[in-house]
Amino acid sequence: MEPTKTIVFIHGLWMHSSSWQQWMNYFSKQGYNTLNPGWPGDSATVSECRANPKPIANRGVSEIVASYAKIIETLPEPPIVIGHSFGGLIAQILLGQNLASGCIALNPAPIKGVWQLPFSVLKATLPVLGNPFNFTKTNSLTFKQFRYGFTNALQEKEAKELYERWVIPAPCKPLFQAAMASFIGSETKVNTKNTMRGPLLITGGTKDNTAPPILGKTSIKKYNSSVVSDFKLFEGRGHSIVIDHGWKEIAEYTHSWMKKNGL
Question: Which residue, 221, 235, 231, is CA-closest to 200?
């Protein structure tokens, strides 16, 4: 009997780790162990994060990656990592370090070397990047900002429900590090030349304003093609791809791809 495989779910900016619960339930039923660690400084609940965002402030990419690496080291074997948005970038870094057996990066933030900057990305990140004094602070999205960046493909009612349920303050530092990566810093660098890594799937949504498909398509082209490196585009889907009413379609596709690639 094969040992049970573990999936580590990695959330992105402005999302609480508990937003993965539906995915964890789904994959548990498929026979996987599931973990959803928060970022360093995250509180146990959404309400606690909102009430006291100070512990979340000034957390950078390297610190976040190191926190997941420390958890992975306690596991009997490298897990599958599934990350959304900035969590998708973190998942790719872990894959490049051979700390994961496979990686699914759902509408991920761009890795170092992806220089494309569509207008929608500028607009979605302006609340943070528009003020350099935000670097060490946290940022809380207004509903209007969340509507544009995450839920523009949804009805207003669902968008409000998701905002009230899952959104938390986020550290601003990772966004600055990603924005400056083309010029200085290596925080968001991924070892794309690693031929010993596991298979990789990157997804995109045609209506995603925060991580438009061009970012994922450009990222996948940077990987060594001798190892599985796939890109999947979902029509009509925005950045809320893992938490909205259509989450199960994405989860089922992810599972099918995992089984196809021996994960």
Answer: 231
The answer to whether residue 1 sits within a structural domain is no
Show Cβ contacts of residue 193 under 8 Å, excluding neighbours closer than 6 positions. Answer: 224
Secondary structure percentages of the chain, helix, strand, coil, to 5:
40, 15, 45
Return the CATH number at 39.
3.40.50.1820
Structure pTM? 0.96
Q: Which of 223, 239, 220, 214 is nearest to 116 (CA)?
A: 214
* Full residue range of the structural domain in which residue 211 is found: 6-260
C-alpha to C-alpha distance for 220 and 83, rounded to whole angstroms: 15
Q: Where does the pLDDT of residue 126 fall: very low under 50, low under 70, confident under 90, or very high at 90 and above?
A: confident
Cα 188 from Cα 193, distance rounded (Å): 15
CA dihedral 215, 39, 164, 29 (to 10 degrees): 80
In three-state form (DSSP H/G/I as H, E/B as E, the rest C), the secondary structure along 108-146 is: CCCCCCCCCCCHHHHHHHHHHHCCHHHCCCEECCCHHHH
Q: What is the pLDDT of residues 189-213, one digit of tens each?
A: 999 999 999 999 999 999 999 999 9
The number of residues in the chain equals 263
